[in-house]
Design brief:
Blueprint (H helix, E strand, L loop, with lengths): L1 H44 L6 E4 L4 E8 L4 E6 L2 E6 L3 E6 L3 H44 L1
Protein backbone atom coordinates (compact mmCIF):
# COMPACT_ATOMS: atom_id res chain seq x y z
CA UNK A 1 0.00 0.00 0.00
CA UNK A 2 2.94 2.27 0.45
CA UNK A 3 3.62 2.01 -3.26
CA UNK A 4 0.12 3.23 -4.14
CA UNK A 5 0.38 6.11 -1.69
CA UNK A 6 3.67 7.21 -3.28
CA UNK A 7 2.15 7.13 -6.76
CA UNK A 8 -0.77 9.33 -5.64
CA UNK A 9 1.56 11.92 -4.12
CA UNK A 10 3.62 12.15 -7.31
CA UNK A 11 0.49 12.72 -9.43
CA UNK A 12 -0.52 15.62 -7.18
CA UNK A 13 2.94 17.11 -7.41
CA UNK A 14 2.76 16.87 -11.21
CA UNK A 15 -0.57 18.71 -11.25
CA UNK A 16 0.77 21.35 -8.86
CA UNK A 17 3.85 21.80 -11.06
CA UNK A 18 1.67 22.35 -14.16
CA UNK A 19 -0.51 24.90 -12.31
CA UNK A 20 2.60 26.77 -11.09
CA UNK A 21 3.98 26.85 -14.66
CA UNK A 22 0.71 28.25 -16.03
CA UNK A 23 0.60 30.96 -13.35
CA UNK A 24 4.25 31.85 -14.02
CA UNK A 25 3.58 32.05 -17.77
CA UNK A 26 0.64 34.37 -17.12
CA UNK A 27 2.69 36.77 -15.00
CA UNK A 28 5.78 36.66 -17.21
CA UNK A 29 4.23 36.72 -20.70
CA UNK A 30 0.51 37.37 -20.95
CA UNK A 31 0.06 40.13 -18.38
CA UNK A 32 2.90 42.40 -19.68
CA UNK A 33 1.64 41.96 -23.24
CA UNK A 34 -1.87 43.03 -22.21
CA UNK A 35 -0.47 46.10 -20.44
CA UNK A 36 1.48 47.01 -23.56
CA UNK A 37 -1.64 46.61 -25.73
CA UNK A 38 -3.66 48.81 -23.38
CA UNK A 39 -0.95 51.48 -23.44
CA UNK A 40 -0.86 51.38 -27.26
CA UNK A 41 -4.66 51.67 -27.45
CA UNK A 42 -4.63 54.68 -25.09
CA UNK A 43 -1.92 56.28 -27.24
CA UNK A 44 -4.02 55.76 -30.36
CA UNK A 45 -7.11 57.15 -28.66
CA UNK A 46 -5.18 60.33 -27.76
CA UNK A 47 -3.78 60.74 -31.30
CA UNK A 48 -4.50 64.19 -32.75
CA UNK A 49 -3.91 66.08 -35.97
CA UNK A 50 -0.37 67.42 -36.10
CA UNK A 51 1.26 64.65 -34.04
CA UNK A 52 4.55 63.30 -35.35
CA UNK A 53 4.31 59.50 -35.62
CA UNK A 54 6.27 56.47 -36.81
CA UNK A 55 4.48 53.55 -38.45
CA UNK A 56 5.28 49.87 -38.04
CA UNK A 57 7.08 50.12 -41.39
CA UNK A 58 9.29 52.88 -39.87
CA UNK A 59 7.75 55.62 -42.01
CA UNK A 60 7.88 59.01 -40.31
CA UNK A 61 5.03 61.45 -40.85
CA UNK A 62 2.66 64.00 -39.40
CA UNK A 63 -0.98 63.13 -38.74
CA UNK A 64 -3.19 65.06 -41.15
CA UNK A 65 -6.55 63.40 -40.64
CA UNK A 66 -8.00 60.70 -38.35
CA UNK A 67 -11.08 58.68 -39.29
CA UNK A 68 -12.05 56.76 -36.16
CA UNK A 69 -15.14 55.17 -37.77
CA UNK A 70 -13.08 53.59 -40.56
CA UNK A 71 -10.06 53.09 -38.29
CA UNK A 72 -7.69 54.94 -40.61
CA UNK A 73 -5.21 57.78 -40.30
CA UNK A 74 -3.84 60.00 -43.09
CA UNK A 75 -0.16 60.92 -42.72
CA UNK A 76 1.61 63.82 -44.38
CA UNK A 77 5.09 62.63 -45.36
CA UNK A 78 6.73 65.72 -46.87
CA UNK A 79 3.73 66.59 -49.01
CA UNK A 80 2.74 63.01 -49.83
CA UNK A 81 -0.49 61.96 -48.12
CA UNK A 82 -0.73 58.27 -47.22
CA UNK A 83 -3.65 56.46 -45.57
CA UNK A 84 -2.83 53.83 -42.93
CA UNK A 85 -4.76 51.66 -40.53
CA UNK A 86 -4.72 53.13 -37.03
CA UNK A 87 -3.01 50.00 -35.74
CA UNK A 88 -0.11 50.70 -38.12
CA UNK A 89 1.02 53.56 -35.86
CA UNK A 90 3.91 52.21 -33.79
CA UNK A 91 4.91 55.28 -31.77
CA UNK A 92 4.02 58.92 -31.33
CA UNK A 93 7.24 60.94 -31.23
CA UNK A 94 6.01 64.45 -30.66
CA UNK A 95 2.60 65.45 -29.44
CA UNK A 96 0.94 68.49 -30.98
CA UNK A 97 -0.10 69.73 -27.52
CA UNK A 98 1.47 72.36 -25.25
CA UNK A 99 5.03 70.90 -25.00
CA UNK A 100 5.67 71.64 -28.69
CA UNK A 101 4.61 75.27 -28.27
CA UNK A 102 6.75 75.55 -25.16
CA UNK A 103 9.78 74.33 -27.11
CA UNK A 104 8.97 76.84 -29.87
CA UNK A 105 8.79 79.71 -27.36
CA UNK A 106 12.01 78.49 -25.74
CA UNK A 107 13.64 78.45 -29.17
CA UNK A 108 12.40 81.99 -29.73
CA UNK A 109 13.81 83.13 -26.38
CA UNK A 110 17.16 81.48 -26.94
CA UNK A 111 18.23 83.71 -29.86
CA UNK A 112 17.27 86.83 -27.91
CA UNK A 113 19.39 85.60 -25.01
CA UNK A 114 22.26 84.87 -27.37
CA UNK A 115 21.85 88.29 -29.00
CA UNK A 116 22.03 89.83 -25.53
CA UNK A 117 25.21 87.96 -24.86
CA UNK A 118 26.67 89.15 -28.17
CA UNK A 119 25.69 92.76 -27.53
CA UNK A 120 28.07 93.20 -24.57
CA UNK A 121 30.75 91.57 -26.69
CA UNK A 122 29.95 94.03 -29.45
CA UNK A 123 30.14 96.89 -26.96
CA UNK A 124 33.48 95.67 -25.72
CA UNK A 125 34.55 95.27 -29.35
CA UNK A 126 33.69 98.92 -30.09
CA UNK A 127 36.44 100.30 -27.85
CA UNK A 128 38.76 97.80 -29.47
CA UNK A 129 37.61 99.14 -32.84
CA UNK A 130 38.23 102.67 -31.61
CA UNK A 131 41.73 101.55 -30.68
CA UNK A 132 42.15 100.10 -34.16
CA UNK A 133 41.89 103.53 -35.86
CA UNK A 134 44.68 104.62 -33.59
CA UNK A 135 46.74 101.84 -35.05
CA UNK A 136 45.59 103.01 -38.49
CA UNK A 137 46.64 106.55 -37.53
CA UNK A 138 50.04 105.15 -36.71
CA UNK A 139 50.17 103.57 -40.15
CA UNK A 140 49.25 106.86 -41.78
CA UNK A 141 51.95 108.64 -39.79
CA UNK A 142 54.64 106.43 -41.28
Amino acid sequence: MNILAGAGASSYSGIILIVVMIVAMYFLMIRPQRKQQQKHQSTLSQLQKGDHVITIGRLHGVVDEINREAGTVTLDCDGIYLVFDLNAIATVNQKNAVPETASDSAATETPSASSQSTEPTTESAEPADSAAPTADDNKTDK
